[in-house]
Amino acid sequence: MNRSDILVAKIGGSTLGAHDTTLEDIVALQRRGVRPVVVHGGGAAISRAMVGAGVEARFIHGRRYTDDATLEIVERVLAGDVNRRLAARINELGGVAEPLNFGTTNVLFGRRIRLPGEDGDPMGAQPIHRLGGVGVKKHAPFPAQRPDLGDRLDDAGLVV
Q1: Are 103 and 76 in contact (CB under 8 A)?
Q2: Residue ranges of region Disordered (predicted)?
Q3: What angle do CA 88, 137, 10 make, to 5 degrees?
């Protein structure tokens, strides 16, 4: 990779585990001038939090159904725990990271997913196939959605 290249890394929330070196690799790339953007998951942590809260997980076509109770847990786990911990760990390792999420700075926008029903018709007519708050990213790239934020973060050299 060349200096000033942008690298988008999708990692699992479990990257915070004891034996994973992914974050060290990201910091090493940043030190060499690469501009990493980290996108993370947290499915296992969400599932544990749901069990702890007594909320039963539902999946439709392999996707988590997100009702209001689930959304509250997902928000707390992803933004309040996983996102902050990943950024803090990158900073501890000598990198420069800023946690971005819907609670602090919206950077991604989406639309609701519509899955086909059992008969192949769009799910709109079949409530059982609605996924609640689950959606997909719109196709506009990050800088087009928030050019002000993209420039500010890029100038600061932050891992986001």
Answers
A1: no
A2: 139-160
A3: 40
Nearest one of 42, 48, 100, 50 to 72, comparing CA atoms: 50
Angle at alpha carbon of residue 43, lines to 41 and 47, rounded to 5°: 155
132: left (phi over 0), alpha (psi -120 to 50) or beta: left
Among the listed residues 33, 39, 49, 16, the one whose alpha carbon sits nearest the alpha carbon of residue 100: 39
Q: What is the CA 46 to chain-centroid distance, rounded?
A: 12
- Tokens 């902050």 label which residue? 84
With DSSP H G I counted as helix, E B as strand and the rest as coil, what are the percentages for the chain, rounded to 5?
45, 20, 40
The runs of H, that is alpha helices, within 5-141 are 22-31, 43-53, 68-77, 84-92
Q: Looking at the whole model, is its pTM more than 0.85? A: no
At residue 38, the 3 state secondary structure works out as strand
* CB of 131 closer than 8 Å to CB of 94: no
How confident is residue 27, by pLDDT bands cut at 50, 70 and 90? very high
The CA distances from residue 100 to 70, 89, 125, 150, in Å, are 21, 15, 36, 12
Give dist(CA 152, CA 39) in Å, integer: 18
pLDDT digits over 88-97, tens only? 999 999 999 9
